[in-house]
Please model this.
Amino acid sequence: MLGLDLTYRARGNEQLVYTAVQYPGVAFKVQWFDTKLILESLGVDALAHWVNGTIADVGRARLLSQALLTAERLERMRSVIGEGHSVPRGCGALEFPFPGRVLRELGFPEVIDPTTRHTLTTPIVVQEWRSLEGGLDFATGMRPPSQVSVADVTRMGQKWLERSVPPGFEPELLTRLAPDSTVPAFVDAVRNRPPLAAAARAFVDSAREYTRGTGELFALRGRNNVYFDADGTFHLIDAMGRPPWQNSIAKLEERLRRIRQTGRPAPGTAPLAPVVNSIASLNALADEVGTEPYWELPDDLKPYPWDTYVDCIDWQTDGLPHEQQPAGKRQAVAEMLRVRPAVDSRSDGLTR
Model:
């Protein structure tokens, strides 16, 4: 890539992370997931044609558009969050030489030769490279509950989304709903470290302002997406969620309203229960640090039928990575991507 001497650092659900000798202190995050989604949206056999150049023009146009959209979203995030919080500096589309074996490991079609390199136009995010040692992360958890209790979900919803029962942190409740959540340990640390509590309050306030202005949700489930360093400053390492055409706070409200009105699962490709759980966790943190909630149910959705909600969630697949989703849902995502405008930077802000 542009003659850089790259060192592989990590793989995430949506990106490969590298550093370069020529740019110390900088991380290059190769957006393999978006690249794969866009190629899939061009047709089931698109990647084979991409490799030999027959769909290069349309494919490159889509990927350049994706890089532009990502850059615009990052600029909006940085304008709200401010400097000093590791928000990526930007995104561009570059020719990246993927090893064939890596593409195969990432789920690209078997037609890819694992013994050769394949150069693809790929969105690449540029960010400060930060060592994640000595601090704490705020992660709402990736693992689904082993057993789903209507009583637990109702308690969570009433306490942190409807706010119809008295406040008070319940770490066991969050752990039962997301076994790998770091939120209980984080809240415990907040109670004993006033500087961390102040930083957590600043994070919740910034997150609320950003979502109200753009409608975009944060990616809070994975480890170290939101990280608080030893001095207490928060850093948004990988906190930008999916684009608004795929998921937003307005789409969340719409799906919850559909469940309440019909008693049936709401259509849509984005996860639902993990988003609700993440918002409940943010609101629990807001209560602890003495600030207003990140988001709560609109009045027309209160009281909410949480027992019906539990019945409408596919707890085995909701929130799984894209590749592990049922074929129908993966195809629906590809179709949404295929028909959406090339660049759509419209916000989808809160309705209240």
Summary: Confidence is low (pLDDT under 50) at residues 343-352.
